[in-house]
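Complex record, two chains
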Amino acid sequence: MSSSTGETVIRPRSGWIAIDWRELWNARELLGFLVWRDVSVRYKQTVLGVAWAVLQPVFTMAIFTVIFGKLAKMPSQGVPYPLFVYAGLLPWMFFSTAVTGASQSLVNQQALLTKIYLPRLFVPTASIGGGIVDLGVSFIVFGCLMAAYGVAPGWGALTLPLLVLLTAITALGVGLALAALTVTYRDFRYVVPFMIQVGMYLSPVIYPVSLIPERWQPLLAINPMVGVIDGFRSALLGVPWNLDTLTISTTAALLTLLFGLFYFRKTERRFADVA
Amino acid sequence: MTSDFAISVERLGKVYHLAHTLPGPTSFREALTSAAAAPFRRFRELRGTERTLESFWALRDINFTVETGEVVGIVGRNGAGKSTLLKILSRITEPTEGRAVMRGRVASLLEVGTGFHPELSGRENIFLNGSILGMRRREIAAKFDDIVAFAEVEKFLDTPVKRYSSGMYVRLAFAVAAHLDPEILIVDEVLAVGDAEFQRRCLGKMKELSQRGARTVLFVSHNMSAVATLCSRAILLAQGTVEAEGLPASVIQDYLIPADVHSLSKTDLTSAKGRSPSLTPVFRSLRLSRALGDETAVFVPGDDVLIELGLTVSSPVRSPRIGIGVNNSRGDRVFAVATYLSPQPIGRVEGRANVQVTFRMPPLYPGRYLLDVSLAGERGSFIDQVESAAAFEVLQDGYLGSSHPYFPEMGSVLVPSVWGPSARIPGPRE
């Protein structure tokens, strides 16, 4: 909905369309409402509510610990494997929930595309905001887990907000592109869960980056989640920082976001016609 | 253009591309390769490198200006481009050519309750929906009590809207939109939903909005009475172009008695959509005319209407039970004429036959009526049945002798009345 009091000119546009930052700023409250809706609906609909946000990572951690930690004897950089894998699952689960939610957000709310005008960038963005609440809950669980293992976080923990931001940037970039693609090609509904599953094995959730030969590590780090997960472990568990990986991943994350934003803007004008 | 316009539309056009249906795969191997190639084919199509698309202009060369404070009604048949026009002006979709300039804060209401979430309470949905419609939180909070009062949902504010009755749901949704207070309001056929009481309140609210001045309203409606009462001007769209523009009364006339009325007075039924695929077509055609008069599909109350049904039966049908049901635009059956309801039923039909029936048009509420036709054998089993086989329009034509508009909630039959001491009833007498 345009709320500008000035003059609005409607005309055909072509090529890449710049982002209207002023419009986004004017409608910022809407983003807040959409995030709040996603969060409150999520916790209202499920019987278990918050418990779900606790159980999901805990069970996954337990299974991974048994299979990869005990049976496969996966190295874990000198940290107890449950802590190691949970520190990787924290950003990964946030990322996968956010990307899945964002990619489905437009097709699941077609009325927002075909019946009204609003800054559509907000619709997938709100799904990512919703994932942050789950992340917060998982963090509390992680705190308990660290206490149980007697591991104290160092000063590195102060970098966590930045790492969460980096995860959000990556998720937003991927989520926007997938949301736009899913509107046009409905098949992406089925492709996204598969991509996420593959993505987990391409990211060091269950294994340490150091398991990969050193010369291949920069290549691996093009996946922004590599830097993020590695960073989470350094920040929380005191594993040495790998600044090369982090730099490459940060750059890749920013490029992903740029691509997502522009691809979304480019295809946006078609949404109402194909939805 | 220097005048004080609110909306200016110049040479606006919108093209849609319809993909041609490609011949389907004939083998599993072909299906597989075709499926594998599909994303790429689709991609090329979107890039425009593979020309398998057919263009369809939903709107072409639309020009008009709306002055500030005007209430303009947009009328036209389904597919005339009304919704596309509103979608372009609401910025939901982009035009292909031309431009439009909107001056002031625009609010569009193409659907009642866009963004409502069933799990959220009435209170929460007011804020959510208000925000989606473009209101600030402060603004919604300030108008909150008015919205609740208008919707009459005080007691259910904290109940999830999924437990609301459909009436409550629609009332709440409209209440939020009605308190938007925009400078330009774009409204689609939202009056089609909800009960009569709700429609009356919506119309009242829109009237109030327009009378406050400096509020421009653009709205699409099939309710000609609403257009006639609310609008200062009307625009008739037909096949994507502006066919008429001017005072509502004259535009409504153009709409109700269009040039293509001929196609309505004579309908081919051999491949009608309203026939169940399991039936073998028997009805060939349906022709509407005034008895002893011209072919027409527009009638006024008191007209003697002649319907001629052309049918072809493979074997003779004795004492055929032929019926014609007349439904109003809301789908309610208003009346029916049938062979078995007449003092002189027909004996039999065989081969190619034409069956005629004459009846007097009752004083129906003006608007469009759809005809269902059916043929059953002596024992009552259906031989052929076509729903919405044809349509006719009923004009009011000053039947009641009053200038006051007649709304659907006043009833589906017009009854002339005289108030005061016993008097003769004016108007046509049988």
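Note: Chain A has a mean pLDDT of 89.
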